[in-house]
Design goal:
The protein is built from ten helices and 13 strands. It has about 300 residues and is an alpha/beta fold. It has one domain: Glucose Oxidase, domain 1. It is globular and about 65 Å long. The model has no long low-confidence stretch (mean pLDDT about 95).
Length: about 300
């Protein structure tokens, strides 16, 4: 395990010649199927458990049939409830896309066109079942950007790393190594306000708010030392990809997924339901909590609903 005191900075990763520049390949033991989740240690789990004060629990997954219609032209989940004679029911799910609602993007979701999948691991050897085996229990920190500045979630509004840092400072909370960082933009609040026609239009996802792509944001997230990052919007980063991105000679810098998943091994969470949690945090000024997530144990799975909880 890499000693956190000697873990390289993002600028040092960019200068690598023994692995893809800007990658964390080889920093953690083989097989490299956990990536930044290796930053979650037993000590980090104990730290998280100590944050529970009231016992309040906030479920962070949306209904699996929301958004409806699904975004990005994904298929709609179909449910069939069957009778078991006269004693009860079974239930059959069809057309279940694990990325049509709240989700973790796994390392099979995006590959580097030049370097392949994270860690040089073969495509078929990655999978969210590794994350399920490990379990995700650590300290969570909410950056409620939507409460500190006006954001139009349906527009391609860029959120900078400086704004995320300023939000954390204003909340009086610091991110620690091994944390999960949750960023609230207000997208789910906005989506819930839409009528049927508005949701139909939103399904086309022509634009939406999110983090600015580029070296600056990637550096910020890596140097925080987090285990994963998640937001309440469809892509974590601004959409369409590349909006407001820093200039770079690397075309993959225009879409941050290429930096976080195949190079850094940092799981990306999307469409997390953060509204009720944000209200509770604002009410008592505590923006850190115990975070748990139990991904589906789908062998070699590409993605998974997080089945995430914040416990305060």
């Amino acid at each position: 395990m890499t000693d956190p005191r000697t873990e390289p900075t993002y600028d040092e990763l960019l200068a690598r010649t023994d692995a893809p520049p800007g990658s964390s390949w080889g920093l953690w033991p083989d097989p490299q199927v956990l990536g930044c989740l290796n930053r979650i240690t037993p000590e980090r789990r104990l730290r998280a458990a100590g944050l529970v004060q009231t016992g309040e629990v906030f479920a962070l997954d949306l209904d699996p049939e929301v958004p409806d219609p699904p975004l990005f032209h994904r298929v709609r989940l179909e449910r069939e409830v069957t009778w078991l004679g006269d004693v009860g029911h079974d239930e059959i799910l069809s057309n279940y896309n694990t990325q049509s609602s709240t989700q973790w993007d796994g390392f099979r979701h995006i590959r580097s066109r030049e370097h392949g999948f994270y860690g040089g691991v073969a495509d078929e050897d990655h999978g969210v079942h590794h994350w399920a085996d490990h379990g995700i229990v650590t300290r969570g920190v909410l950056a409620d950007v939507a409460r500190t500045r006006h954001i139009d979630p349906g527009e391609a509004e860029v959120i900078t790393p400086e704004e995320v840092a300023a939000t954390l400072d204003a909340q009086g909370v610091a991110v620690e190594r091994g944390d999960i960082l949750l960023i609230r933009t207000g997208w789910t609040t906005w989506y819930r306000s839409l009528d049927a026609a508005g949701r139909e239009a939103a399904a086309g996802i022509r634009q939406g708010c999110g983090l600015r792509a580029g070296v600056g944001t990637t550096r910020f997230l890596w140097d925080l030392g987090i285990a994963a990052v998640a937001g309440d919007q469809p892509a974590l980063e601004v959409f369409p990809p590349g909006t407001g991105a820093e200039e770079s000679n690397d075309p993959e810098q225009q879409f941050m997924h290429f930096q976080l998943l195949p190079r850094l091994g940092m799981p990306i969470g999307e469409l997390f339901d953060l509204d009720a949690l944000a209200d509770a945090c604002a009410a008592d000024g505590r923006y850190d909590f115990m975070f748990t997530s139990a991904p589906l144990r789908i062998r070699n799975g590409v993605a998974s609903p997080p089945n995430a909880l914040a416990i305060r």
